[in-house]
Structures are given as structure tokens and as C-alpha cells.
Amino acid sequence: MKIDIYADGANLEEMLLAYNSKSVKGFTTNPTLMNRAGITDYLGFAKEVLEHITDLPISFEVFSDDFEEMYVQAKKLAALGENVFVKIPVTNTTGEFSGDLIRRLDQEGVKMNITAVFTINQVQLILERLTSDTNHIISVFAGRIADTGVDPLPTMKSSKRLLRERNSNLQLLWASPREVFNIYQADEMECDIITVTSGLLKKLPLGGKGLEEFSRETVQMFYDDAISSGFSL
Asked: Measuring CA to CA, which residue among 189, 190, 194 is closest to residue 174?
């Protein structure tokens, strides 16, 4: 596959396992993942990660709801390393578009991962603000779009077309995949990046596996679990 796989998480041990196995081309995290991992020192965690991972892109997200404070946080995060992409949400919690902040950081050469994007209109608005040759990522949440019963492929394909019309410094990221098949879908439509959890990473070796053998192994799993549980009828 041509698509770049980024590990999505906030468990340093898992991140380093993926890094050392060379199974991924980058990393992303966010405040929700860090909270679930029990991280309380945001900056300390970011610095610790960057002590180990210096040669692959990694995205850290701002967490203020105020655009001026987002700017201050973005500059602090960007200063941590050349491989840092700062995640900027496409809106704040009231739905106000982050356009002015995106434009400002773009002009200052801050590499961004513009996140929580769901619509083509949002992609178009973002592209209007990106005028420099700074590298950026636009993360469209295909998995969450699918959660609403809407096929995300048209949105992803249209987003990719819009990015191609601009320049090569912009990359499209397929966010929140729900199954390994999404990786193959994203690769086929020539998406640049997909984020993958550790659970999905572990399933990647199943690619090309014979289905009849997989069926037998599944039956074996059911049998073994029944026996080990001591069930009787």
C-alpha cells in the first residue's frame, strides 16, 4: 500500500513499539486519548515522546477554546521539535470557524494538522486560508461520518481532489477508521495518511489471509473458550 499509516494513541510504550517495529510513518494523539491514558502533564508527556521520536511526524493538539490562547499553545507545541504538527480544531466548541488562526499560523510557518473536519465546505474554507508552502495535514473524520449512516467516500474523494488542485504540501488524513478494511479503502482512493489505533495495527498482518482457514481458526477459538470455561449442558 502507498498510504502512510500513523499510530493514533497516547500510550508511550505502544508508541515506541510501533516506532521501533517501523510499522508506521508517523503519530497522532489528542487530549481525549491522553486523558484516557491517565496523562496529567501534557507538556511533560509531549517532551518525553519527542525524546524518543525525532524523525517521524507527530501531532499534538491545542486544548483551549479561545483562539488567542490556541495560538499561544500552538507556538509552544511547535517549538518542541521540527517533526511536530500542531492539531488545530476546525472550529471551537461554539462552532466558530478557526480560519483566522489557521491563516496566522500558516503565515508563520507552523505545521498544522487541522482536525475534526467533517464536510467539504470546511475543507474549502480551510484551503482558502492556506497560502504558504508550509506542510499541513487536513484530517477528515471518515469514521465518524460513517457513524451517522453517511458514506464517507464521496467526501474523502472530493477532499483529495481539492487538495490536488492546490499543491503537494497538503496531505489528506483519513481519521477515525473503524476496521482494517478502511485502510484498504483509503489506500485505493489515494488518501495520503490514515490514523490507526494499536488494535487495528495488530490486525494488519491478516491482510490476504485465506478465509476458509480463518473460519476454522474462529471455530477453534470458540471451542477452546468453551472448554476453558468448563461449560456443560
From this structure: 194
d(CA 122, CA 46): 28
* Structural domains of the chain in order of their starting residue, each with its CATH number: 4-206 (3.20.20.70)
Q: What is the pTM of this model?
A: 0.95
Instruction: Give 201-204's long-range contacts (Cβ < 8 A, gap of 24+).
Output: 201/5, 201/7, 201/18, 201/23, 201/24, 204/5, 204/23, 204/180
Of 109, 115, 97, 104, the C-alpha closest to 31 is 115
Is the pLDDT reported for residue 211 higher than 80? yes
Cell of 113: 494538522
Q: Which contiguous run of DSSP H or E holds residue 60? A: strand 58-61
166 confidence band (pLDDT: 50, 70, 90) = confident
